[in-house]
Amino acid sequence: MTKTIQAIRGMNDCSPTESPLWQWVESKVRNVLQSYGYSEVRMPIVESTPLFARAIGEVTDVVSKEMYTFWDNDEQLTLRPEGTAGCVRAAIEHGWIYNNEQRLWYMGPMFRHERPQKGRYRQFHQAGVEIFGIANPEIDAELILLTARLWKELGIEQHVSLQLNSIGSLEARKNYRSALVEFLQQHIDLLSDEEKERLEKNPLRILDSKNQALQEVLNGAPKLLDYLDEESRVHFAQLCTLLDQMGIAYEVNPKLVRGLDYYNKTVFEWVTNALGAQGTVCGGGRYDGLVEQLGGHATTGVGFAMGLERLVLLVQEVNHQIALPRAVDIYMVYSGEGTTLPAFQLAEKLRKNLPHLRIMTHCSGGNFKKQFKRADKVGANFALVIGETEAAAQQVVVKDLLAGTQQVLSLDNVVDYLQKAF
Ligand code: HAM
Which of 138, 165, 218, 365 has the greatest number of CB atoms lying within 10 Å of its CB? Predict the structure, then answer.
């Protein structure tokens, strides 16, 4: 037998039984984003490699280890590991942002060469928001309110909590970085080889080390919040006040720094305990320097992205109240001479007049018994049956598969009948 070819590790198929839940989650996300007046944008999945290196930072894990990069003739290209860089690139390229505040969202696949495990994949999907041109913290608060609203819509609000921090200006981080390195050098024996390397290149990332002994020592480390510049301090205080007033609970986590280099001021993550190690369902923050850094005029930015796989897993885990739509409402059954055409015509008429219904036409021959079995299997509520007698009389048998009842209707009355039934 010929050897079968499997999907790439960490890249998943979405089966016909899984897709209804995905569609449900995606439609909740879309509806909430639209209810805040944000506009959808779609960017390419492939971008030029230097875009990510410049935006996300050479020393981040994402850029240094996790990118899918290849040569296209003499140009180096990368499958996007996240959406912010491409969105900023597109905003500069098309002038979306100048003299014009923009509130944008996107949804789609991202690629990171990470070690796959539950909640962590090599192809995964994000829904993200990027807001350009609003410097004040009201918009940071709005983003958090929006995500909180979405959690309610998804029925997961009891299982996620908000971690918040401010990482201040570049200058403030530089000062903090020196203080942190000095502190960590006194505990160098606790650092792994990787952390020793980070101490040189990206010491702030050591703050979210998984090493328990180190974490305890880090509780006594200098705190970023104590090094904040005045502007960031005021910005953060205003954000916290507005969140308090709006009744949003959060924990200020001075160790929260995020894994991408473009952030300043606000950073936040929504985390859950219900998914094991990969508990961050949404992360984001401000990136006021990024547009300029990528060659645009200085424009502030703030945004977030959520992992759709993690949201789907969490919904599956904790929300058992969802009524997902069935794939098929009505199954069109027909058998005998001259029955195909009336069955097809009736199905098309129903689709035109009752577009919210899902109507499957049998199409594959066989006797009535086989066709009813199929109707049950796909979960239809009703079977519409046309045999030779019905075809000749311009009629149809409407069989309620759940109640086990049936009646004969004229073809002219079926639309009305089904309109009332659904
Ligand atoms: P991020 O924290 O790298 O931020 O990713 C955002 C979310 O994507 C994570 O919280 C997680 O839910 C999901 N995610 C990340 N990697 C994986 C993976 N390998 N498998 C499954 N899910 C994953 C960003 O990407 C920023 N661009 C967010 C942002 C937008 N900041 C400002 N604007």
Answer: 165
Asked if residues 401 and 381 have their Cβ atoms less than 8 Å apart, the reply is yes
- 20 Cβ neighbours under 8 A, 6+ residues apart: 324, 325, 327
Statement: the pTM of the whole predicted model exceeds 0.85: yes
CA angle 297, 285, 155 (to 5 degrees): 135
From the CA of 234, how far away is ligand 1's center (Å)? 27
Which of 124, 134, 151, 300, when mutated, tests ligand 1's pocket best, judged by the most ligand atoms within 8 Å of its CB? Answer: 124
Residue-wise pLDDT tens digits, 303-353 = 999 999 999 999 999 988 898 888 899 999 999 999 999 999 999 999 999
Q: How close is the Cα of 358 to the center of ligand 1, in Å?
A: 35
Nearest CA to ligand 1 atom 1: 283
Judgement on whether residues 29 and 111 belong to the same structural domain of the protein: yes
Nearest residue (CA) to ligand 1, atom 11: 307
Q: Which domain holds residue 369?
A: 330-421
Is 254 among the domain residues? Answer: yes
